[in-house]
């Protein structure tokens, strides 16, 4: 990658540098242990603080007529609550705090990643894979606990003609196991691609002749990224709800 | 940031060429801090934020329900007051009509008495007048007969005739009767 950049007529592109995990204290290149405080730690902590500020501080007055902040908190609550209720039904409501946790984390991490010079925690496959596989295992275990062996009915499409059912079962099983992969790669891929493209456009701004175009491009893509950040948080959450619905009601 | 990250890039490039996302060495760090963050968010949300927002929403719903109930109550009261007002108005109107009717009847009675009295007076006066007129007429007839007799006598005398008063009187009387 570095070689490609060098060959581009003196232009230097480092679109992936923004994703490097490095210790927050100490020299660049110091070893990153599991406990090391890194830029990941800092931006995760900021996400926690953002959620604390957004959901706790704004509602501290418990006003019957809400202010701006409290309206936002209530909006978030109502949005996710309604999503969980609509998709999973009444019996899915008790998993609402978990889904709210996922939604708030992804939303805040995505938006914090849009701050220039920041680090986007959700652009890392390690992070999104934990989220995606976490949902996958939780939902699968929940499905077996709630339904026992009849959870396997999820793969046996009883509305299809009998000869087709084994074929469909194989397809259903494959699609079921692909879920966590697509679930996590979708989020990380979207975030990484958008941020990398931003950096590429910013790199072109080094050349005076095309700088205006490049800067307009950065602005346009930044706007798009704001949308993508919210939409990916929404997509991740609603897919989680859909998987949860499958676990609670496995029969088609 | 540029020079810093360039240096970092070189270092990282040595460790993991290509995407930093695939640098397995940093996975442990990311996963550890991510789990910590998720647990923190979960506790903040499930212990503080979500129950609080649920309570706020429930309270608001309660307030709205109470307010609507109070409004219905007030509306019912207003309707009651309006009905009472309408009733009072109708009563007053009926009373006024009754009083007006009574007064009218009384006045009518008075008027009838007065008219009767006036009629009687008028009838008396008319009878009196008729009598007077009859007297006058009678007097007038007599006067006419007298004048006719005198005139007839004079005419007879003027024509050179000679007639006694008795004959002339009988002739005039016969003529006047005819």
Automatic annotation (TrEMBL), chain A:
PROSITE patterns: ATPASE_A (PS00449)
This protein's record includes keyword Transport: yes
Subcellular location per the Swiss-Prot or TrEMBL entry: Cell membrane; Membrane
InterPro entries: ATP_synth_F0_asu, ATP_synth_F0_asu_AS, ATP_synth_F0_asu_bact/mt, F0_ATP_A_sf
A Pfam family that the UniProt record links to this protein: ATP-synt_A
TM spans (from-to): 32-57, 95-119, 125-145, 196-220
Coiled-coil regions, chain positions: none
Family note: Belongs to the ATPase A chain family.
Function summary: Key component of the proton channel; it plays a direct role in the translocation of protons across the membrane.
HAMAP family listed in its UniProt record: ATP_synth_a_bact
Name listed for the protein in its UniProt record: ATP synthase subunit a
Organism, scientific name: Tateyamaria armeniaca
Gene: atpB
